Amino acid sequence: MSLELTDVTLTYSDGDTRLTALDRVTLHVPRGTVTAVVGPSGSGKSSLLAVAATLVTPDSGTVTVDGTPTAGLGRGDLTDLRRRAVGIVFQQPSLLPSLTAAEQLQVMAAIDGRRPRGARGRAMELLDAVGLADRAGHRPHQLSGGQRQRVNIARALMNDPALLLADEPTSALDHERGAAVVDLLVRLTHRRATATVLVTHDRGLLTAADRIAEVRDGRLALPAPAP
Ligand SMILES: Nc1ncnc2c1ncn2[C@@H]1O[C@H](COP(=O)(O)OP(=O)(O)OP(=O)(O)O)[C@@H](O)[C@H]1O
Fold first, then answer.
1. Count of domains in the chain?
2. Structure letter (DSSP) for residue 74
């Protein structure tokens, strides 16, 4: 299991009271599967991802990432765990304007302290996996929105994370390109045995997900397991 959220409650201060963003949420995501998370605006989807990414510590409950319980870990250990085990794809690809597609990926390996030569090969392999081998030398302004998001996904996979978290990765794309990005995430998840959580508003994109979880008012409803 690459992600285990068990009985997680998260509240935010809201004036004199507290707002419950996540209410006893339990979600276990095995490797090689995509769990899509849907729900109305403000229901808690981004909060769920923030907790799974270990960026926010819940009030109660446990979070285990790639077999490592996060309770009691200090900031440095959490950063190490994130670097090693978590890939994050945000809504808008935050690519560096002056770098080529391949360099966007290689930067990740440099942050991780890996040797540059191995990083180049790995970047090319991942760009090939997302269908952009022939765009490796292009800078962001020379790529389409869908291509930029594919670079973004490849970059999130650069350190071979056990857990891939994607927050509305298709929101800047039209339906067709959005569907292609979701299909790509699903294929990469199955091939690389990543555990993937995909937050989206667009239910039309979800036919390829292994499981759809619904958040409402901070509560998570999962489909009953198949008999
Ligand atoms: N930092 C914060 N401080 C206070 N309240 C917050 C904070 N972040 C989120 N909230 C509140 O927590 C609830 C859940 O927010 P969250 O961003 O997780 O929802 P969401 O489902 O991702 O929404 P959307 O689909 O609009 O992005 C909302 O009521 C929101 O207003």
1. 1
2. -
